[in-house]
Each structure stands twice: as C-alpha cells, then as structure tokens.
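USER: Note each token:
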Amino acid sequence: MGELKGKKEVYTNMRKGTKTLAIWGLLFVGVLCCTALLGIASTGHPAAATGFCFMPLAGIIYGKKIFDWKKIKEYGTAKEARAAIVESAAIVMGKIAARKVVGITGKKMVGPDATLTDGNPIVLVNSDVIKTPDRGYELLFDEVDMRASSNDAFDVLDVSGGVTFYQIKPGGEVKMSTVPKGAKTSVGYLRFAGGLNILDDWLKYNKYYLIDKLFEDTIRNWWGKRATLFYGLLAALAAGVNQAFDTDDITTINNACAKIFTDMEAAGYEVDENAQFVITCNPTLKARIAKALKSTFETQGVNKQIVYNFAYVISTTKIASTSYYVSLPGFKNQRGEWEDLVARDAQRDELHLGAVHVYTGAYNGIIGESKQHRRCALA
C-alpha cells in the first residue's frame, strides 16, 4: 500500500508540474499577443506592426521574405538603411535565380507502357512546393554562360557537329575535322534596366510596406520580361513549322514528333530515338494535352497512344491558346546569360526627396534551328 501511495503522489506532482508549464505557456502567448496589439496601435499600419512582432508577413516574393524589418532600427542613418535594404533584396534575388528549374513528374510520362500509372503528364515548373517565376522556357534552351566573358556576343555554329569519325588502320593518321568559316550566327546581349526610388518619408514614417511592394513589383517584372522574350521566340517561328491537325491530338502529336525526327536527320543532326520532347501550351489547353498523353492502347488498339517520349509539359500564359508547340529542347535553342539582375550604386534624388536605385541585367536567346519545333493546330 505504501508503494502504491508513493506512486500516486509522484503522479499527482507530475500533473501539477504539467499544469504549471501549461499556465506559463499561456501567459507567454498572452504577452506576445499584447505586444502585437501595442505594435498595431503605435505604427499606423497593421500588417507591418504584426510583422515586427512575429515573423514579417509583408514582403513575400515567390515564397521568400525580402526584408526583416525588425532589424531596420539597427542602422543609424537613412543611407545605411537604404544600403541594407538593397543588400537584402540582392540576396533574395540571388536565391530565386539560383533555384534550379526542374519538373515534378512520376517515374514515367509517356512511351510504350500501356498503363502509365506512375506518370503525371502535366509538369509544374517549380523547384519545390513554393511558387517560382515562370521559367519553363529554360527547359527548352541550353544556357551559354557569358557572365565571366569579355565578349558581347556568342556564336551559334551552322553545323550539325564538329567532329567526323573515320575508320583508320592500326598506326594510321587521324583525320581532323574543320568548322566552315562564316557558318555561324552571332547572338549579342540585350540589356534591360529599371529604376525605383526609396523616398525619405517612407523610412522616416515606417512605411515599409510600400518598399515591400516596390521590390516585389521590380522582381516580378524582371522575370516576366524574360519569360515574354523567350516564349516570344516560339511564337515568332515562321509558318513552316505549322503541324496540321490529323484526326485527334494523339495523332497530331505523333506526327509532329516524327516530322522533327525526319527533318533533323535530313539536316545532319544525330538525334537519339529516345529523345525527350517538350510540349509548351497555354493553361487553357492543359486538360486537353493531359488527356492526349494519358491515352493508352485498349480493345485491340481502338484507342491510340503517343509513342514518343515527353519529358515536360510547360504551361504558360505567354503562349496563345490557339495552338501548342512540340519541341526538341537543346541543340540550337540557346540562352546567353551575361549579367544577372544587379543594383547600381544609389544616386541621391533631391527633386523627389529620395534615392534612386537602378537595377539592370543582360541576356538574350536564339532558336537557331526551326526544325526542332512544330506548332500544332487544334482542329
């Protein structure tokens, strides 16, 4: 009985301890809530005040918080604060640019498998569950890194390959291949720039939410401009890439892939028969494309199937909904990168009582071989 009574006392003490911890926890939460209310009353902007008390709620761009306004008071002058703001924005911009563009997909998308149970034909062009800019075009273009180069252009050679292999006898001389002179296209950089003005009063009166909005718009517009340019290269292809509608979308897509294979072979390109194609379409066509990619052979071939491999389906509002594109990525689809988005040194703007920050970057792209693409009709 004594042992049982001792255990009961221990249990009772444990319950008291748990209740005590719970009470202290509730008090702690109450203090935080009171602090938040005081912040709201003192600043004049509820979103900013709540952000300062807990984790900042404003300034979220593509899933990343741009600024931690809790630390803004650490800087003694407006000039130092501006420098910190620009540096913080640069870090976020760098993180967004560093994200790899990969497609979320299953084990298999299309091919000879009659079930396709493991595949998700519509690929979200995200690096993870957090939303990213529209960068699906990067899956179509091979990057040419010109960031460390002193040249203002890169060349796209008008040849299918640089080396030809010949059979030689033991001890025989190897024949060297040559690249024809003048058989190239130069792609120069395009520079893009924009400026924003951080006003003195925004810092003086804690209007940080306006700075959040300004930088959000700047970053979104930068990526939006890039997407417009690169998808525009697809839309600008001549009528020679048009693929007529044949019976249904499945037959049309199969015909487009076969045409690309045939044309590339005739032009001297070595394309593997298991090459991974990409479809680029408007979001309104996603369901239609998904249905075509998911169709399988049934009832002795009554239903057809796409017999070529597709790595990704890129969905973007930058492409019109009147057609879609079947493409073979890489090869002469090339994207030159000279300078990522960076900020110039701030310039004082006394006329507007603020400081101007100019952001700029340089890039360009080319579709050097139209035979890699087919524009598919819907009817």
Notes: The CA atoms of residues 41 and 379 lie 61 Å apart. The chain has seven helices and 14 strands. Residues 2-43 form the longest helix (42 residues). The first strand starts at residue 60 and ends at 61.
